[in-house]
Amino acid sequence: LSKGFRGGCCPERSSKFSFMWLSLCLSTPQQLVGVVGLEIHAQINSSTKLFSGSSVRFSAPPNSLVSFFDASLPGTLPVLNRRCVEAAVMTGLALNCNINRKSLFDRKHYFYADLPAGYQITQQRQPVAVDGTLTYSLLEGKKRSQVIRKNVHIKQIQLEQDSGKSLHDDVHSQTLIDLNRAGVGLMELVMEPDMSCGEEAAAAVRELQLILQALGTCQGNMSEGQLRVDANVSVHRPGEPLGVRTEVKNINSVRYLARAIDYEIQRQIGILQRGGTVQNETRAYDSKSGFMPEPNLPPLIVYEDNASLPAGIDACQAVVVQKIKEGLPELPSIKRDRLVQTYGILPEHSFTLVNEDGLVEYFEAVLMATKKEPRKVIGWVTNELLGHLKQQDLSVSQSPISPPALAELLELQETGHISSSVAKQVFQKMWRSPGKTAAQITQEHDLGLVSDTAQLHSICQKVVDSHPDEVHAIRNGNKKVLNKLMGLVQKETKGRADPVLVRKILQEKTS
Amino acid sequence: MLGLFFLGVSLALREGRISPTELCKKCLNRIKKTQHLNAYITVTEESALKQAQQSEVRLLKGVPKGPLDGIPFAVKDNFCTKNIKTTCASKMLKDYTPPYNATVVQKLLDQGAVLMGKANLDEFAMGAGCTDGAFGPVKNPWSYAAPYREQTGAMLESDWAITGGSSGGSAAAVASLTSYLALGSDTGGSTRNPGALCGVVALKPTYGLLSRHGLIPLVNSMDVPGIMARSVNDAAIVLGILQGLDVRDSTTVPAPSPLTELPQDFDVKNICVGIPKEYHAPGLSEETLAQWSRVADLFERAGAQVKQVSLPHTQYSIVCYHVLCHAEVASNMARFDGLEYGHRSQIDSSTEVMYASTRHEGFNDVVRGRILSGNYFLLKQNYQHYFVKAQKVRRLIADDFRNVFGSGVDVLLTPTTLSDAACYQDFTQEDNRTRSAQEDVFTQPANMAGLPAVSVPTALSRRGLPIGLQLIGPALHDKKLLSVAQWIEQRVGFPSISDWDYSRESRNDTAVTKREQTSAV
């Protein structure tokens, strides 16, 4: 709740900022460099709140998801939601954390209209998970094909309550409160200041987002506030103590996060270079606010395995680390390695696949239905399909072309029924008329490969006759000019001519 | 009939000697007659009659819900009651009506007990006199009975004695025979203190045995719903009904055993009674000391082992109790900001100004003072020095008890209060803080350690006011504690207020009470 620097840069300045990323991430010993730590609040994907039975739902009518406890009615008590604990433990395991067998809840006090009890229940002294690592990758180089792995240390993951929302009506000088969000379970992840620029922070957050989504512990949608990132930014010369920190808060996309952090780093460097000092803008009030153990919740105990459960404790009611470990899904980094190894695709393609929700599944579904090599399918998925989706702001699941439909198209090309350029035309037409198969479109538009030798002979003859200079050049040994003639034949046939056949005929006619 | 233990009434109800409606009306009449005591903040006449009627139907059909069916009871006004105002004796909540019942209230209603009303208290249960509530002080029923009036020569209306607190209304309700039992809350002695001063049995069960869901908290880590009754056995039956795990309160524990009636012939021969020397405190009245010795002698003569023991950290307890109490108060009171419920100030030029004026207008000086000091203790720079230190001492105090009980002591026998009830005029010469420190001195260590404790009335003082003694037992040994308490009760012959009060009207009832007491001995 501290009032830090508010991020959010103008999108039109993006080119300038992307230039800056390069310079910020590289440093020489005497240069001022950025130091970035992150505090991330991830809303737990659970059907009910952390300490009450009210439902969790985005954009429900105001104050429709509020229990007596959420409204802090006197005499109500918190009852911990096991699902939220399991989500935090699972997230902790995925981030290589130590899971505390015993963790504690605390109250953090502040007067805030959307915090009805006057305190937040959190885990300040002994959080559920500590001391983990997040490994993320940066894609560098001209074609962003160089994968650089980096680590950021996770200090802790703590369970805590979300606050409600305040809406200020300045005209009527009123504040309206919506408590739907009050008491929703949050995981606060504290990442140590191991990052040096916006791009690194953005890559770390993106990787975390993918992990949380793979686990299902958080939906990770930043624009809906399911994932909220605060960055602590300072600058220093390597080897020297860290500089004064400021906070960049309320960023609602990974892209703006990178820009806001870099803007702040540049701002601080500018101040220091002009001989000024960076002001810490965190409110002093915050640091004095009192903590107290939450007396209504006994210590949270998680058990290593079923064997360590004390007598009388029902295994279904307890949180058992081993059980959660066994249920961990494939994490993004493992998935990328598997894709590279199994299909022989490039690492950067594995990033593209994993980055897009559902794209791996799409890719694999296409492979199931075609004999085409994965290395040849990948371009269709990451360029044609993804390009079209992005253009229309669609998700993979909304694609008008299903994996079997794409596979059928690729199969037509693979078996020589259509050329690769026609295949792209058919793809476009399929996109526009969902439900029609590649074969139907090929037939309707007469796009099938022309392999009638007589017909091709006649077209080739026409091209040869009308381009005597080119024919001359070829006969003089400049074989490359043959490609020009081939292009002309394809133009005549709207790309439908069987290229192997055309080449053979043209070679005959120009020899 | 009104002077009976509820078990006696329960039998009368089932045998048809009186109907629940008649009983309810008798109690309502008596509430009107004793209105000057100010025991109730809200009398729920209409719903009580309705509940009594429903009970009557069940009894006529021969299917009562249990021994409590048709029995009138009162609830301290800091337990939430659905659709019935719950004020905490504070302006802050003077018009607050909760949408749900506290678990312990619900359990009594489920047994068919009839809720007569909400009992008066110190504001938010902060006090030891029941003199600091927004609806005025509660008067000790015994200060209107013949012994006090005759002994002290009290003539003036202003000569009345306090009930003790903070559950003074609940104690007065049971003592003045308007309810057969009452719920109090006990954070530092708030049930036992007025229980002792009003001559009723007052049980503070083991922390966690009774649900706090719906009890508006004072100190969450020490609050326990308390049971006030006319006899130890009555208290035991209510404990049996109220105890056990509640999913709405994560600090509850399963009941160690189902508790019904107590054995009538408990043998104390194998009991070891500890007399903690630290409770021989300055200010302990000669008469209370005499009662303490008398009961210790009773035990000794009956063959129990009685030995002096030491609880060396007792002297630090009250100070630490106040640090922890004020810190939790500061935290618990933060929710009263006028936004969601309760009083909201008209002064609302900004949210902050509205908070400040709401809280200034809504809370009395005592509550505001505790919030202020509590916030001081919770400041980052003070937290280690006060709160953490007080918690460490709390552990030492709990260890003291553990050591004593580990050395073979079964129960500790102590005074409940320093003396009998003070006259209101005298009591209010000192402020709430001073009085709380004096009055809770013997009672709050049991809260610090989470142990069960019960106050049993033993005699009337020379002034004609009750004196009680306290028994403290190991955690979850509530039943044994009550068995020992009943043993005392059976031998001390504490009189019923109905022996003097309204004697013309209830002569027959009195005879029944005396007969029961005699046969019990």
From TrEMBL, chain A:
Start and end residues of each Asn/Gln amidotransferase domain: 361-510
Top EC class of this enzyme: ligase
Major site of localization recorded for this protein: mitochondrion
Alphabetic keyword roster: ATP-binding, Ligase, Mitochondrion, Nucleotide-binding, Protein biosynthesis
EC number, UniProt record: 6.3.5.-
GO MF terms, alphabetically ordered: ATP binding; glutaminyl-tRNA synthase (glutamine-hydrolyzing) activity
Pfam families, per the entry: GatB_N, GatB_Yqey
This protein's record includes keyword Cell membrane: no
Catalytic reaction list: L-aspartyl-tRNA(Asn) + L-glutamine + ATP + H2O = L-asparaginyl-tRNA(Asn) + L-glutamate + ADP + phosphate + 2 H(+); L-glutamyl-tRNA(Gln) + L-glutamine + ATP + H2O = L-glutaminyl-tRNA(Gln) + L-glutamate + ADP + phosphate + H(+)
A single BP term in Gene Ontology: glutaminyl-tRNAGln biosynthesis via transamidation
Keyword hit for Acetylation: no
Compartment(s) of residence: Mitochondrion
Gene3D superfamilies, sorted: 1.10.10.410
HAMAP family named in the record: GatB
Oligomer status and interactors: Subunit of the heterotrimeric GatCAB amidotransferase (AdT) complex, composed of A (QRSL1), B (GATB) and C (GATC) subunits.
Reported function: Allows the formation of correctly charged Gln-tRNA(Gln) through the transamidation of misacylated Glu-tRNA(Gln) in the mitochondria. The reaction takes place in the presence of glutamine and ATP through an activated gamma-phospho-Glu-tRNA(Gln).
Family membership noted in the UniProt record: Belongs to the GatB/GatE family. GatB subfamily.
Official protein name in the record: Glutamyl-tRNA(Gln) amidotransferase subunit B, mitochondrial
From TrEMBL, chain B:
Gene Ontology molecular function: any one: ATP binding
Catalytic activity: L-glutamyl-tRNA(Gln) + L-glutamine + ATP + H2O = L-glutaminyl-tRNA(Gln) + L-glutamate + ADP + phosphate + H(+)
Secretion signal span: 1-16
Cellular location(s): Mitochondrion
One example of a Gene Ontology biological process annotation: mitochondrial translation
Keyword terms: ATP-binding, Ligase, Mitochondrion, Nucleotide-binding, Protein biosynthesis, Signal
Uppermost EC category: ligase
SUPFAM superfamilies: Amidase signature (AS) enzymes
Predominant localisation class: mitochondrion
UniProt keyword Cell inner membrane present: no
Subunit architecture: Subunit of the heterotrimeric GatCAB amidotransferase (AdT) complex, composed of A (QRSL1), B (GATB) and C (GATC) subunits.
Similarity annotation: Belongs to the amidase family. GatA subfamily.
Biological role: Allows the formation of correctly charged Gln-tRNA(Gln) through the transamidation of misacylated Glu-tRNA(Gln) in the mitochondria. The reaction takes place in the presence of glutamine and ATP through an activated gamma-phospho-Glu-tRNA(Gln).
HAMAP family: GatA
Name of the protein in question: Glutamyl-tRNA(Gln) amidotransferase subunit A, mitochondrial
